[in-house]
Amino acid sequence: EPVLDVDFFRRWLTTAAASMEREADHLTQLDSAIGDADHGSNLQRGFRAVTGALEKEPPATPGATLVLAGRQLISTVGGASGPLYGTLLRRTGKALGDSAEVTPAQLAEALGAGVAAVAQLGGAKAGDKTMIDALEPAVAALATSFAAASAAAEEGAVATVPLQARKGRASYLGERSIGHQDPGATSSALLIAALAATAGE
Ligand code: ADP
Ligand code: MG
Ligand code: MG
C-alpha cells in the first residue's frame, strides 16, 4: 500500500485548485439555476488563498496541510460552502494527527470524520441535494480505491439532479430545485477527482 506524505497532500490541494479555476464558470452556472450564482467564484477565491498560503508557509505534515487549507477556506469564502469545505479539510486534518505519512486507510477514516463534521455543521443528510450526496459515497468507496471514490462522488453529484433541495439556498425554491445538479455536490466530485488524479488513478 502506498504511503501518502506531505507532498501528496500539497499536490492534491493544488490539483483541486486548478480544477476549481477550470470549472469556475460551470459551477457558477449551476448555482445560477438554484442559488445565487457565486459558487464558482467562491471556490476560486478560496482555493487561490489555499495555494497562496501553502506556498508562503508550507506545513510539514499532511494533517497541518489540510488544517491550513481549511482555515483559508473559512476565512476567505463568504458563502455557505466556505465554512462547510473549511470544516471538511480542518476536521480531516485534525483526524490525521501529526504523522509525517498516512496510509490510504487512515485518510479514508479521517475523511469520514471530516464528512461527519460537515453533516453536523450543515444539518444535511444524504438525499438533501447538497455536497453530502457526493462526499458520503466517496468516503464509503475510498475503502476500495481512489478511483472508486472519484466515480462514486461523480455518480452522487449526478444523482442530485432529480432531488428536491432540503438545505441551503436551493431549498428556498422548493420543487423548482428539481431538475438541476447541485453545485456543491459537483465541486465535491472535483475535489475527490483531484485526489484520485494525485494518486495516479
Ligand atoms: P451560498 O449558498 O451561500 O451562496 P455556495 O454557492 O458557495 O454558497 O455553495 C452552495 C452549496 O453549498 C450548495 O450547492 C450545497 O451543496 C452546499 N450547501 C449549502 N447549504 C448546505 C448545508 N446546510 N449542508 C451541506 N451543504 C450545503
Ligand atoms: Mg451560491
Ligand atoms: Mg452566496
Automatic annotation (TrEMBL):
Residues 7-197 form the DhaL domain. NCBIfam families: dha_L_ycgS. It holds the Pfam family Dak2. Keywords: Kinase, Transferase. GO terms for molecular function: kinase activity. PANTHER family: TRIOKINASE/FMN CYCLASE, TRIOKINASE_FMN CYCLASE. This is Dihydroxyacetone kinase subunit L. It comes from Streptomyces camponoticapitis. Gene3D superfamilies: 1.25.40.340.
